[in-house]
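Researcher: We plan to redesign the surface later, but first we want a full-length starting point. Tokens attached.
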């Protein structure tokens, strides 16, 4: 038999993303008063589904703690210096990306986030990182701004495309 299957499962750090997701969903529900009814319905549906999944995860964790198959620990967040640096860099990159969206716009901020994430986390060459990030950012622009007409902040790229094409 495999002894690893009988080992206790650590829990603690795996609650960070559900907690942040729940906080974001609660903030969204709090701030949707001025949106169209379609956005409200979609937002409420997504929030309810997210809260339901978090509840299932919570029940699974509580049952595991009661049965003794799970235990709470936080060491795995910083178990290695390299992993802590990567996680910190990704967090900093995410915060920076969100902070520059009002100035750089959706497309350029998405490109920069993906470009630096591919360089740092995937160790891609600059050329491959630029091509991949550019394709994904352009795809996001086409889908979210041109097709869905989402009201993302405009930046230099969006203004240039509008000036050149009238779209």
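Model: Full-length starting sequence:
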């Amino acid at each position: 038999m495999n002894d690893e299957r009988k080992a206790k499962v650590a829990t603690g750090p795996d609650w960070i993303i559900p907690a942040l997701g729940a906080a974001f969903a609660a903030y969204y529900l709090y701030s949707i008063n001025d949106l169209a009814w379609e956005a409200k319905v979609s937002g409420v549906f997504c929030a309810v589904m997210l809260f339901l999944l978090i509840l299932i995860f919570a029940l699974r964790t509580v049952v595991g703690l009661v049965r003794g198959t799970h235990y709470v620990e936080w060491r795995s967040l910083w178990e290695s210096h390299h992993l802590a640096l990567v996680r910190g860099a990704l967090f900093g990159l995410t915060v920076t990306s969100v902070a520059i969206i009002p100035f750089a716009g959706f497309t350029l901020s998405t490109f920069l986030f993906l470009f630096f994430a591919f360089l740092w986390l995937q160790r891609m060459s600059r050329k491959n990182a630029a091509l991949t990030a550019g394709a994904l950012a352009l795809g996001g622009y086409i889908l979210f701004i041109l097709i869905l007409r989402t009201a993302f902040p405009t930046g230099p790229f969006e203004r240039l495309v509008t000036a050149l094409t009238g779209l």
